Amino acid sequence: xxxxxxxxxxxxxxxxxxxxxxxxxxxxxxxxxxxxxxxxxxxxxxxxxxxxxxxxxxxxxxxxxxxxxxxxxxxxxxxxxxxxxxxxxxxxxxxxxxxxxxxxxxxxxxxxxxxxxxxxxxxxxxxxxxxxxxxxxxxxxxxxxxxxxxxxxxxxxxxxxxxxxxxxxxxxxxxxxxxxxxxxxxxxxxxxxxxxxxxxxxxxxxxxxxxxxxxxxxxxxxxxxxxxxxxxxxxxxxxxxxxxxxxxxxxxxxxxxxxxxxxxxxxxxxxxxxxxxxxxxxxxxxx
Length: 287
Hints:
Blueprint: H1 2-20, E1 43-47, E2 50-62, H2 63-74, E3 88-101, H3 103-114, E4 118-121, E5 129-132, H4 136-139, E6 141-143, H5 145-150, E7 156-162, H6 168-175, E8 185-188, E9 194-200, H7 201-215, E10 222-228, H8 235-245, E11 257-260, E12 266-272, H9 273-286
Parallel strand pairs: 6-7
Antiparallel strand pairs: 1-2, 2-3, 4-5, 7-9, 8-9, 10-12, 11-12
Helix pairs in contact: 2-3
């Protein structure tokens, strides 16, 4: 009998000891999916009360569903052509996932639309439209340099860049390969020393930065120099020849100015550094 009581006592101690151990922690609850209407093959949730998309792995999704999810995330209405959106696009995200919030959601949708040569324009003004890339320039917002710096990265804008020294066609040649293949435009402004650029705001900012660098060299700044001519050269005829040789290719650029010094075989010429170098060579060849 005593042995039975002793065994029961040991068992009781074991049970009490087991209950005294720390209870196993509950597994974390799965993140709540908050999408109420429709469905998409990625997690739609909230961070700080604002919509967030969590992408993971390789996924295909119909464009119409993606645009619908964007409308619900941003609260921005957009007219759509269901036939135009009858495409399936795809993306590949890291296995551990990546989270998009705020403007990053719109940038992602814009990049997905670009797969089928379509663009999202006007969303920052509340008048979003989805159009073919070739039509983006007609709907892009016209902005100045200050507004350009504040524009969302994927918003399509048109901005005029004005130059002090640079020649617009030369800058255009440097920028031409930087614009979007579909829809991007860079053109000189008739009658002004500038360029009109239409593209996504992030690309226009990059091109504006490069254009400013090209315009900051000062090579187009005009200076006044004197040129003494040999007795064998007629100053008037030499001035006419130089004006004809160094007439600017663009009417928007400053004209070279040539003046004769009365009673002397001397010319006073106002021109930029590149022109002065050529003028010296031309006078040498006149001898």
